[in-house]
């Protein structure tokens, strides 16, 4: 008996894309989609613009107040520099305005919403990420890490993920449902369903090419394979 | 059960749950709160079923998205920040500082050691100050603590309506220094080391110089009050940075990233305390230290009391586990 056969359920192989799976106390796997460098940089640029605008407008307003205004201005500068991100991330469910615009949010590594200490850590350590100039360390770290973490994220244990939008329901081809010719395993069943659901995003030639792989096990001529697979998929979904 | 029947049977539930989520995500709370837990658990069960039965990718993904959104709402942080901060300041912070005494001691020795050393050197070899501080800066410092000035410190030459300005300036400047000292500790501790030594040397050099030219009364009476909070806070932020660096250099039995995460979670709490101390320091500096109508002796007395207070706070507060309740 090969040694690995004794081990209990094989851990699922890591996904081919950048998805990041965490198991929750409820016993389900949450699939997170970490956001890469470009959307994060864009979100940061938006935030930078907003902060600049706030400071500009407030400095005009506060300049009228004289010395008191100058004092308030430096307090405001302090708040906007160091606390803008933290306050928004914690109080607005992990989203600064820029992230909200880009559909991103910050979460802990375990998928829970980001809290005060993690948010403070990741934003204070931004100071190191921008070294030696223009976010060099942050960019290098972000590009090298499988979940696109910058140094602040590494230390704080946080992730920036996409906020998923529900996909439109797929259009399955209208064919009569067919029973499967032999009992299918789960993975096979999923593969057939996925094929049927993704039809609209594949070209005719590619669909044929993929379907022909299954012509032999399904015992049909290659040109009928696609229709047969669609039928079986229909049969898996509804009454056969 | 075939997928279509499963979907038909639970479609309503999923839609209701999505509506609840929409309300919660917009920050509304209502009677739905009570049903949320049960609805979320059922959704998790449906997701597990859909995966185990090999339902189509679209359905699994849709349920997974709902589960993720529900998870975000269920585990949201609704902590009482006010109560927690008070508890932290009354007991948690001094306790944490005592637990981290190795880093605090190291940072303290580095900072105060370089400060005293440089102070003595400049006192006996006056020209040394120019190797560290530019002549303009020295002249500026001399002007600030000139015994003839009516108000001390930065902005000393201006009227009395500027306490706010000073407060704001001190908050921004000092907190910025503390945050830098902490954050740069991520560079294997080198950054914190640099900022601790640099600040220690600079302050030491200026102190030595001002004392040598006979401005000691103005200078010392000015810094003694807020220094208790400000200098200690710089040491503590250095300690927090050193802890970060040390986690990378000597992670012990943990992986480096895990060690870093744990060190960061602890040291950022130190920084929260440092922030409170610097706010107090800025307040004292702007409203008390700059006054000249109170004599130097009174300032020394108050300063000594403040140092004692800080020392007692870090040595004694939070010894009794039940005190803050």
From TrEMBL, chain A:
InterPro entries: RDD (IPR010432). The keyword Transmembrane applies. Keywords: Membrane, Transmembrane, Transmembrane helix. It is found in: Membrane. It comes from Azotobacter bryophylli. Coiled coil: none annotated. The keyword Isomerase does not apply. It comes from the Bacteria. This is RDD family protein. Residues 35-156 form the RDD domain.
């Amino acid at each position: 008996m090969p040694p690995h056969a004794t081990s209990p359920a094989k851990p699922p192989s890591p996904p081919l894309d950048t998805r990041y799976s965490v198991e929750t106390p409820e016993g389900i796997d949450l699939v997170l989609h970490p956001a890469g460098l470009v959307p994060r940089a864009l979100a940061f640029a938006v935030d930078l613009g907003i902060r600049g605008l706030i400071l500009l407008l407030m400095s005009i307003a506060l300049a009228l107040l004289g010395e008191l205004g100058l004092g308030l201005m430096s307090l405001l500068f302090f708040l906007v520099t160091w606390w803008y991100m933290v306050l928004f991330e914690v109080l607005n469910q992990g989203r600064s305005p820029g992230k909200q615009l880009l559909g991103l949010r910050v979460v802990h590594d375990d998928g829970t919403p980001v809290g005060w200490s993690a948010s403070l850590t990741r934003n204070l350590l931004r100071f190191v990420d921008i070294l030696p100039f223009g976010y060099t360390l942050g960019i290098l770290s972000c590009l090298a890490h499988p979940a696109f973490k910058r140094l602040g994220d590494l230390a704080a244990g946080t992730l920036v993920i996409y906020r998923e939008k529900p996909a439109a329901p797929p259009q399955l081809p209208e064919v009569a449902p067919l029973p499967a010719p032999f009992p299918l395993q789960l993975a096979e069943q999923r593969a057939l369903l996925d094929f049927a659901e993704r039809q609209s995003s594949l070209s005719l030639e590619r669909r044929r090419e993929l379907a022909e792989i299954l012509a032999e096990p399904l015992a049909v001529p290659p040109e009928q394979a696609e229709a047969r697979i669609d039928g079986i998929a229909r049969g898996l979904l509804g009454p056969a | 059960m075939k997928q279509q029947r499963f979907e038909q049977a639970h479609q309503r539930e999923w839609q209701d749950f999505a509506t609840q989520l929409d309300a919660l995500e917009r920050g509304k709370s209502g009677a739905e709160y009570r049903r949320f837990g049960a609805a979320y658990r059922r959704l998790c069960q449906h997701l597990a079923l859909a995966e185990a039965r090999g339902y189509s990718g679209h359905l699994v993904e849709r349920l997974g998205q709902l589960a993720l959104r529900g998870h975000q709402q269920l585990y949201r942080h609704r902590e009482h920040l006010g109560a927690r901060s008070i508890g932290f300041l009354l007991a948690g912070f001094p306790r944490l500082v005592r637990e981290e005494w190795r880093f605090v001691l190291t940072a303290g020795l580095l900072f105060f050691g370089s400060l005293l050393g440089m102070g003595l050197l400049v006192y006996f070899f006056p020209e040394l100050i120019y190797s560290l501080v530019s002549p303009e800066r020295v002249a500026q410092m001399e002007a600030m603590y000139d015994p003839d000035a009516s108000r001390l410190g930065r902005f000393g030459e201006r009227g009395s309506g500027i306490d706010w300005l000073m407060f704001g300036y001190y908050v921004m400047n000092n907190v910025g220094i503390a945050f830098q000292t902490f954050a740069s500790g991520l560079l294997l501790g080198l950054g914190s080391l640099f900022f601790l030594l640099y600040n220690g040397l600079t302050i030491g050099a200026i102190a030595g110089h001002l004392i040598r030219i006979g401005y000691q009364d103005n200078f010392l009476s000015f810094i003694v009050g807020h220094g208790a909070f400000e200098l200690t806070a710089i040491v503590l932020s250095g300690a927090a940075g050193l802890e970060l660096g040390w986690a990378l250099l000597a992670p012990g039995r943990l992986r480096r990233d895990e060690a870093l995460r744990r060190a960061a979670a602890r040291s950022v709490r130190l920084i929260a305390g440092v922030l409170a101390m610097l706010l107090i320091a800025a307040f004292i500096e702007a409203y008390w230290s700059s006054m000249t109508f109170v004599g130097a002796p009174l300032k020394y007395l108050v300063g000594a009391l403040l140092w004692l207070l800080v020392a007692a706070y870090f040595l004694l507060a939070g010894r009794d586990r039940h005190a803050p309740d």
